[in-house]
Write a structure and sequence with these properties.
globular, about 110 residues, 3 helices, 4 strands
Length: about 110
């Protein structure tokens, strides 16, 4: 049910390696962020290949968890297939697509 809410109300950002769907919750700034990676059969036919892609994406997200703002839900839909990018490439694309984390002293996001 949470995935459906993010898919329907989230903001879509298309990148060269996939689509990132972001749903921000600005009022609940202390809530941790949540992420899901959905790899369909169009991306890779074998389940082992899909799981490898999913693990790479999760590891890239986990390695940059400090850069991910709190109170955010995101879904990543990778579009690459046989030519799997490295974790550094995935992290770089995600870092440019994600919004900047808010500071603890400025919870409203005002300048």
């Amino acid at each position: 049910q949470e995935l459906r809410q993010v898919l329907s109300k989230g903001r879509r950002i298309n990148t060269n390696i996939g689509t990132l769907i972001i749903l921000e919750h600005p009022k609940s700034g202390t809530q941790p962020w949540k992420a899901a990676v959905i790899v369909g059969k169009k991306v890779a036919k074998k389940a082992t290949d899909r799981n490898t892609i999913r693990r790479q994406c999760y590891e890239a997200l986990w390695n940059m968890h400090a850069a991910v703002p709190t109170a955010i839900e995101l879904i990543f839909l990778p579009r690459f297939g046989e030519t799997n990018p490295t974790q550094q490439t995935i992290a770089q694309v995600l870092k440019t697509a994600l919004p900047e984390p808010r500071s603890q002293t400025d919870p409203a996001g005002a300048n």
